Structure formats: structure tokens, C-alpha cells
């Protein structure tokens, strides 16, 4: 595949039997809180379930598993952001006890890790309770390393930031990628480096500036890039269309122009030629509006791509060898403005192509239509996914690659 997937150290290559394994997971899950704010429970355990394949493999191989994750954005130790509800949900999913440590690091926590038996688990408290986590403090990295003999990173969603629990600790222990991390890297690498052709990319959502790197990357590598959602407004404006009160900052037109400079002769940039409108002042019954030769009225906004555009995008997907989809085509949560997103979702679910879907809104749409299990891979990496596809080096992955190089050097 690529140098990244070839060199990424995997847990299958590491001896974990009767060894303490510090497993970095992404359990930053949605929480449901009581009105008094005192009690909380996990509202969506998708991320916990996604990590089970790695957790169960480590337990089956006799590892003593020490789990570490962040939850929310606490400002120091805040009981409301304790990992306790997450530990309790993991215990129910695995049918095994998951005790919660009284802190993140320290002698008492270290002693608890030493008491673990093969196959047992311990969850550390919220790693963001420690001030050194987000600053990648090497002292916190060293303290975390004292809790284990091996480090495994299965939190791709945090790989785009250098944290003590993703970068500093990997410098101090034999390290490997978990199965979720491994699958994520493999699937995304396949999209940008060796896709089955044609490669069709569907991008939606908002803010060209947030996705300009992604747009540029695919305008260099894809065969067709189909734009929807608010993402298309600056491109339509640049081409001379009036887009009414559809929201976008003026500087995004220049960002769209810069993105087009990267386009190769092969790629086709597909834009909507019809949309579904609503009054800017208040929500009204959906009104289709064709863009060819027309302008969106001043007091109207586009909230979805039109039926003709949805059909055209679905046709591109049907003929593809590889499909990457990131971002809904409009305000699919609102009645009357979901047809475009539904058309793309249905096409992605029906094609025989390799399909990768990314982004919270995209995954939410697929789940709401009951189509999430008909996609080859659902990426939950968020910003990490975008930065990886843009070709940026991710600190969390670079740390694992350095650990692999060190092991090869030492064994040689």
C-alpha cells in the first residue's frame, strides 16, 4: 500500500502476554446529564464499541490492559467529566470488571496496574485532568510510561495533535497501533494513494476555509469532485451566480479560487445546477430552484441540492471504483431539505465501489437512513481524517513510526 501502512507497527508484532499495556483509546463520547449536572451516563457508545476489537484481542492474548482517554474539555479535575460512566459502560459491553483508578498517574495508580492479572482491565481517570496532557509535557509522558510495559495507540481521532498520552509516552515505551488505528490508516491511504478508478469525492457541509486543503488535495488526485451543502456557495459565487442570503464569508470566494488553481486536467469539479430554497427570515415549505441561467433571489437561501443535482451525483457514485464522502448535501435534519443527502447516501450504500464516509454529519445521516452498515469504512477521525487526507504528518502516527524505526534499528 504505502510507506505509512507498511511501516506502522501493529499489536500483532508485539509481545503482550502478562505485560501491562497502556491503551490510548478515544472514549470522548456524548454524555447525557441529569438536570442537576451531578449524574451522567453515556448517550452514544459507538466509539467504545469501535475499540472492542483491540481491547478483546489484548485481553485474549493475556495483556494487562490499562485504558487511557480524555472526555470533554475539563479545566482540571472536574467530577462532571469523570471517566466513571464510561468505565461502567465498557464493563457492560465486555462482561468484565473495569475499575476506575483514583487518578491518571502516581504511585497509587501505578500500584493498581501492577496488581492487574492477565486479561484484566483498569481505566485511568480523564487524562485531561492533568495540566500536561495537551501541552505534551514530557514529565506526564514519563509518568504514564511508568504504568505500563507496552504502549498501544488506538485513538486515530487524536492523532493530529501532540499530546502527552499520544506522543510523549510513545517515545518511552515499545509502541504499536491498535486495530482501529490500523484500519483507519489503511482505509484512508487507499483513498488517496491507490484508489480503484474512477475516484469520486463528494464534499459537503460548511466553510471552504476548513476544507480548502482537502479540496485542493482531491482536485489533484480525484476523477470527479462533487460539492454540496454550504461548501458550494463560494464556488457558485465565483462563477457569477447570485446565491441570495446563503451564508458564507466573502474571503471564502478567494479560498475557492485558490483551490481551483490546484485542479488537474483530469478532474471534473461538479457543482449543483439546481437547489432547494427557503426564506431567510423563517423556515417555509421547500421550494426547488434551478441555477442554470438564474440567480437565487436576495431573500432566499439554499438548504439542499436539487433533485437533478442529486441524481447526477448519484450517477457519478454508481460509476466509481472508489468513493469518499465527507459532509451532508444540505440541512438534512429539516423536513423538506434531506432529499439531496438521502440521494447521495443511497448511492454510496448501493455501489459496489470501495466506499469511505467521514465526518459526524455524514455518519449521522447514514445512521438515520439505516445505511451505515453498507459502507466499506466509516471514519470517525474528524480533523485527523481531513489532515491525513491532505497529506499532513500526524504527530500520533509519526510517534508510532519512530518507535517502529527504533525497534528495527535495535534489532539490527
Overview of this structure, please?
The protein has about 400 residues and is an alpha/beta fold. The chain is elongated and about 75 Å long. It folds into two domains: about 5-180 and about 395-410, 3-Layer(aba) Sandwich (Rossmann fold), CATH 3.40.50.1260; about 195-380, Phosphoglycerate kinase, N-terminal domain (Rossmann fold, 3-Layer(aba) Sandwich). The protein starts with a helix and ends with a helix. The chain contains 15 helices and 16 strands. α8 (about 210-220) packs parallel to α10 and α11 (about 305-320) packs parallel to α12. The protein has helices at about 5, 45-60, 85-95, 105-115, 140-145, 165-170, 180-190, 210-220, 235-240, 250-260, 305-320, 340-350, 360-370, 385-390, 395-410, and strands at about 20-25, 30-35, 40, 65-70, 120-125, 150-155, 175, 200-205, 225, 270, 275-280, 285-290, 300-305, 320-325, 355-360, 375-380. About 50% of the residues are buried. It has a six-stranded parallel β-sheet, sandwiched between helices. A five-stranded parallel β-sheet has the order 5-4-1-6-7, sandwiched between helices.
Amino acid at each position: 500500500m504505502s510507506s505509512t501502512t507498511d511501516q506502522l507497527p501493529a499489536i500483532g508484532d508485539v509481545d503482550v502476554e502478562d505485560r501491562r499495556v497502556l491503551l490510548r483509546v478515544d472514549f470522548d463520547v456524548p454524555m447525557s446529564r441529569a438536570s442537576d449536572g451531578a449524574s451522567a451516563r453515556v448517550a452514544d457508545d459507538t466509539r467504545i464499541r469501535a475499540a472492542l476489537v483491540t481491547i478483546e484481542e489484548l485481553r485474549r492474548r493475556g495483556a494487562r490492559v490499562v485504558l487511557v482517554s480524555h472526555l470533554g474539555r475539563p479545566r482540571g479535575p472536574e467530577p462532571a467529566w469523570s471517566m466513571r460512566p464510561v468505565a461502567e459502560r465498557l464493563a457492560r459491553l465486555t462482561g468484565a470488571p473495569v475499575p476506575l483508578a483514583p487518578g491518571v498517574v502516581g504511585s497509587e495508580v501505578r500500584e493498581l496496574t501492577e496488581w492487574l492479572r492477565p486479561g484484566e482491565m483498569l481505566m485511568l481517570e480523564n487524562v485531561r485532568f492533568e495540566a500536561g496532557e495537551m501541552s505534551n509535557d514530557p514529565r506526564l509522558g514519563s509518568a504514564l510510561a511508568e504504568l505500563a510495559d507496552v504502549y498501544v495507540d488506538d485513538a486515530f481521532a487524536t492523532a493530529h495533535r501532540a499530546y502527552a498520552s499520544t506522543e510523549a509516552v510513545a517515545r518511552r515505551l515499545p509502541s504499536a497501533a491498535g486495530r482501529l488505528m490500523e484500519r483507519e490508516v489503511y482505509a484512508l491511504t487507499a483513498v488517496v494513494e491507490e484508489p480503484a478508478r474512477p475516484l469520486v469525492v463528494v464534499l459537503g457541509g460548511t466553510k471552504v476555509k476548513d476544507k480548502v486543503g482537502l479540496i485542493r488535495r482531491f482536485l489533484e488526485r480525484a476523477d470527479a469532485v462533487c460539492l454540496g451543502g454550504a461548501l458550494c456557495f463560494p464556488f457558485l459565487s465565483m462563477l457569477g451566480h447570485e446565491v441570495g442570503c446563503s451564508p458564507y464569508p466573502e474571503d471564502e470566494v478567494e479560498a475557492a479560487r485558490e483551490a481551483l488553481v490546484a485542479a488537474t486536467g483530469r478532474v471534473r469539479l461538479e457543482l449543483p445546477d439546481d437547489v432547494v430554497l427557503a426564506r431567510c427570515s423563517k423556515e417555509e415549505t421547500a421550494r426547488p430552484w434551478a441555477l442554470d441561467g438564474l440567480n437565487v433571489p436576495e431573500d432566499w437561501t439554499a438548504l439542499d441540492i436539487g433533485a437533478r443535482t442529486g441524481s447526477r451525483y448519484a450517477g457519478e457514485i454508481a460509476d466509481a471504483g472508489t468513493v469518499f464522502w465527507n459532509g451532508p448535501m444540505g440541512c438534512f435534519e429539516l423536513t423538506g431539505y434531506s432529499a439531496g443527502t438521502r440521494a447521495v447516501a443511497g448511492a454510496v450504500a448501493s455501489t459496489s465501489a470501495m466506499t469511505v464516509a467521514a465526518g459526524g454529519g455524514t455518519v449521522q445521516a447514514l445512521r438515520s437512513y439505516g445505511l451505515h452498515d453498507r459502507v466499506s469504512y466509516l471514519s470517525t477521525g474528524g480533523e485527523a481524517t481531513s489532515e491525513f487526507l491532505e497529506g499532513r504528518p500526524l504527530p500520533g502516527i509519526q510517534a508510532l513510526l519512530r518507535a517502529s524505526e527504533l525497534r528495527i534499528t535495535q534489532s539490527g
